[in-house]
Amino acid sequence: MSQPQRTPQRPCRAAALPRQRRGAVLVEFAFVALGFYVLLIGTVEIGRMILSSQLLNNAARVGARELAMMPLPATMTFEQAMDAPILRDALINGDVMARGAYDVRKTIYDKNKLAINVTGDSEVQIQAKLDSLPYLNRMLLPLMIRERIQIGGEQVDLVRYPGALVANPEYQQSQFIDEESQNRFDVVIPKIIGGTAAGGGQIQWLGVVEEIVPQEALQPGGSGDYRPFSIASQGRATMRGVVCLRINYPYQASMASAFMPSGDGTNTPILADDSALQAQGYQTINAADSDQPSQSGQYGLGVMYAFGEKVRPYRRILSAQCIARRETMTPPPVSGN
């Protein structure tokens, strides 16, 4: 008995998509990618901000503790200990204020070593320079950046704290002590007041390490007599002979741009225009060809490209502070007849 013949089956074909649905996958991917990108930015940048805040807190505790334990003259002010230039003649002649400030620079904090020139150095030499920094400078190392810039046709490699790169007034000045006078650059932090979407505003300079001062010292006519570091302060008795230390850090995102809210509910990107800013007080270094775009520019405010324009990165100034009572003091010098 013969078997019935079977008709061979053809392979099934996927139904063709209608013309109206062509490109739908691309549109769906665009929406998903946008959400994923926003999530990635938030994770990375918020994580960096939290890490920076923790590093600042640790550095503030170390700085306040070391200053509290340093045997300095009781009437010495915070500015004399941390910020004032040290005259070589005063140090040679045994001035106790100059000696105290010199000891602070050598062991605790040196404001002139926030921008370290490592041009031409090997990795071993760079590490040796960093290992020789004072305590507080070393605590700030994880927040520093490695930057290569052009200054007057010269290529310079720096390990520096973020902020505005400025000229060191002590550089190659014979009246100051030789070691510190060899540091070519300093770093200060710009705080923009009254900024606009066009990039304008007034710059207020902040120190990387500064003293927390009471309201009395900030009033018109106020003076250093109310600053708490000195035991001779005219402030409250509970705020005499106290280390009140603050550390500032300009956090600037590398993946998110800055916006200025507008009246119609939309946000306008802030243009990166250094010429629209007003600043006085420091000789800023206008470096070129920085390999750190988020920290580049005359004031270290950074630049990134978005919407076909040069805009500012998202920026916030983080601060950490610590207060400790001074435990070791030396008596002021006695003037003899």
List keywords for this structure.
alpha+beta, 4-stranded mixed beta sheet, 337 residues, elongated, 16 strands
Write the layout of secondary structure elements.
Blueprint: H1 24-69, E1 72-73, H2 78-82, H3 88-92, H4 96-107, E2 115-117, H5 123-131, H6 135-139, E3 145-151, E4 154-160, E5 164-167, H7 178-181, E6 185-193, E7 201-206, E8 209-211, H8 215-218, E9 242-257, E10 259-261, E11 267-269, E12 277-278, E13 304-306, E14 309-311, E15 313-325, E16 329-330
Parallel strand pairs: 1-16, 7-12
Antiparallel strand pairs: 2-4, 3-4, 5-6, 6-7, 8-9, 9-15, 10-11, 13-14
Structure description:
By secondary structure, this protein is α+β, with helices and mostly antiparallel strands. It has one domain. Helices cover 27% and strands 26% of the residues. It has eight helices and 16 strands. The strands form six sheets. A four-stranded mixed sheet has the order 5-6-7-12, with no helix packed on it. A three-stranded antiparallel sheet has the order 2-4-3, with no helix packed on it. The radius of gyration is 28 Å and the shape is elongated. The mean pLDDT is 86.
Quick take:
This protein has 337 residues and is α+β, with helices and mostly antiparallel strands. It has helices at residues 24-69, 78-82, 88-92, 96-107, 123-131, 135-139, 178-181, 215-218, and strands at residues 72-73, 115-117, 145-151, 154-160, 164-167, 185-193, 201-206, 209-211, 242-257, 259-261, 267-269, 277-278, 304-306, 309-311, 313-325, 329-330. It is elongated and about 120 Å long.
